[in-house]
Each structure stands twice: as structure tokens, then as C-alpha cells.
Amino acid sequence: MSSQPQPQPDPMTPPIVDPVDQPYIGPIKLVVDLTNNVDRIVTVHEEIPVAPEGKAGAKEMVLLYPQWIPGYHSPTGPISKLGGIVTTVDARRVQWVRDRANVYAFHIPLTPGAKTVSVDFQYLSPIKRTEGRIEISDKIADLAWYEVLMYPAGYFSRDIPFDTTIKLPNGWKYATALETATDAVEIVTFKTTTLDTLVDSPVYAGSNYKRVDLSPTPTDTVHLNLFADSPQDLEIKPEQLVWHKRLTAEADKLYGSHHYDHYDFLLTLSDKLGVSLEHHQSSENGHPANYFTDWAAGVGGVDLLGHEYAHSWNGKFRRPADLWTANFNVPMRDDLLWVYEGLTRKRPEFPSFLVALQSRTSPHGAHRGVE
């Protein structure tokens, strides 16, 4: 046996501070610029107030980029898509340092009495599917907030307030479950909300847009927000609208109540991009461009809208305990994923809506639907 010295591990760096349930000094100001939809580069600016402990002499602020993303149930935060990170403290540039053990954590040195940390960076949205989900084209953008922000470590995400603004390309419209504060042409500011709600409320935007009312009752407000590659793809016929209204009517009958203030289906009709993901008061959905214009031929994934809508109850309003986390960098435990996804799949997802779509080319496709 060799008597030569053997390698020994270096001591690990101190862990990132655990989150605690206390209000952050906030709000954090976040500005997201979507106007460069040619290069698909999103420009981000954040202004983060320094908490009292920082002003009292803390040597650094630790910022986290979201890692564990709700709905994906795994550490899929696209850290590799960040570029050009620049940090300043009270307008004076300082050099951030990546944590040696946690690549999603950034250490920002503070000066005595520091008031504000500013962060600028670019999010490099994929241009081909092998790089990740396609989110931006020359006609449509799907903005997922978790991709374009950092937040201070040590706090529950529900305790961190955000003031957010987006800049849109000329002539574009938008839809989201967020509440709008001001809308000045292509610059939109949303009302202050928590980081939890922000990450759970994506924005769809585009040059070809139509909004359709699917509200099953006067007190259950639901809209279908359509964004298309071409204006003609937005044309929805009365008989097509009937089937989509049955979806929300059957949900109202099935669940007997709703927990959201309003619900927004966000739906792309595109051959260039599209994603599906559930949220509390909205959902991201993608169908081919011919979803309405070639209705008789049918399209795959006809259960998409019903599935993501059902998740608003099962998975969002009620979530398995080990899938809930204090912030977006605490690991999820998927022991009860079978409840989150399995129950949603096993539950009949509004039968008459699905039968209608799956059999719309069949003479036997009629279904009684909701009484």
C-alpha cells in the first residue's frame, strides 16, 4: 500500500442562509425589455433595497436566481442563459462573485450604509429547440418571470414584493393574470405583487391578439387570450367557441366553486413556439397555428386546456406538502407528484369538451355536455 499522502477534501463553503418567513424591506423594482425580439435577447434591470442588517454593517448581499421551478418539479432554472451580469451598490460598480458550491447564488459586496443594489443582465432566449423551449419569435413572446430576475436569499418568496415593468415591441398587445397599474403604449407597469405571485403569472405578448370571454357565470371570470403567427389564425367560429365555453361551464359544475379572482388561458397559435405550464390564475398553452383554421382535421393534445385548467385546483390551490417550498431555491420533494400530476390525469378532464374535440370529424361526435 502506498505511503504517499492521499488527497483530502477542502472544507465546504458556508451554506446559503435558509429562508425565514419575514417581510422583505422591498419592493424590488424590475424592468424587463422585450423589444429585441430579432436576436431574442431580453434586457433586465433590477433595483433591490438593502435590508436593515445590510445597512447595519453586513458585508454582502446574496442574490439567488430561481432554480426549482413550480410545474416542472425539478431544478430547471435556465442559469446558462444569463449573460452580461453587472452589479452596482448605490450607483458604484462592484464585482459580484459566484458561490463556489451553489451556482445559482451570487455574492454582492456591500459598502457601509449601502441603500440599493442594482443588477443588470441579459437573458439569452433559445433560438432553436435543442437549446431549450422557444419563447420568443418575431410575432409572439412568452415571458416567464423566473427567467428574468434575481432575489435576496434568506426570505420566503411570498414575503418579497416586486414592482414590475415590461417594455414591448411597437404595436404589441399583452395578456397576463397580473393586475395592470399603468399602460403607456408599449410600456406596461403592474401593481405591486409578491415574488410568489409574479413567478406564477407569466405574460404573453404579440402583434396578433384576440381576447375571448369564456366566463361560465357573472362571478366566474375566464378569458381565452389568443396570440397567433398570422391574423387569420385568430378567427374562431361560433361552433368552435361553444366547445371552449363548455370547458369552463363543466369546470364550474364539477368543482362547484373557484378560488381565483379571474382566470386567463394564455394560448399561442403558432408553428414557431409553444409551451404548456399550469398556474393559479392562468395557464401557458400552445397549439399549432391551424388550431381553428383547420378545425375539422383536429390537432394533437386536445386535453391541454382542460389539463392545465384542472391544475388550478389540483396542484396550485391545493398542493402536495412536499412540493411546496419556501422559495425557488429550496429543493422540491416529489413523493406526492402522483397526486399533483396523476390525479389530474386520472380525473375526467371535462368529458364533453374532450369528446367534442376528439370526435369533431365524426358524425357520432355529438355530446350532451353540461345541463
UniProtKB/TrEMBL annotation:
Signal peptide positions on this chain: none
Identification of the protein by name: PDZ domain family protein
Residues of the Peptidase M61 catalytic domain: 303-345
Species this protein is from: Acidisarcina polymorpha
Coiled coil: none
Domain Peptidase M61 N-terminal span(s) in chain numbering: 31-206
